[in-house]
Amino acid sequence: MHKRIIFLLGILLLAVGAIGAETAIDQDFMHALEDTTKSLDSNVSQKDLKAAMADIKEIEQAMKQVEAYYVKKGNADDAVGFARKSGGFASEVEKSIAAHDFDAASDSVSSLVHSCKSCHDVYKDKDK
Fold this sequence. Notes:
This protein is mainly α. The protein has one domain: Four Helix Bundle (Hemerythrin (Met), subunit A). The protein contains 5 helices and no strands. The protein has helices spanning 2-19, 27-45, 49-73, 77-98, 102-123. Helix 1 (2-19) packs antiparallel against helix 2 (27-45). The radius of gyration is 14 Å and the shape is elongated. The chain starts with a helix and ends in a 5-residue tail after the last helix.
């Protein structure tokens, strides 16, 4: 469980780091997102509907910000696609949580992390 939390946190931090100072995202945002990611993983594991739903809403918003960044940046259609795909997985997490299907939510969290990592594999070094 700890490895999964650390991995998910790393992915989200990389996403926020890729956005950089060109957006309204700052250190406080990054720390809050870290906390939200830890909380989501824990709340899905504990089957805490209300708390997990609040967490995923925040992560969905972050994915929208990532998408908007790459749309504005231009010449990054793959990154826009990855952000949309990740947002789709976040939506799946939300739907599963709403249906009280925490096993499916956990699977979708894993898919979300994989999608984020796929984008970072392509774009992480380009945005430094």
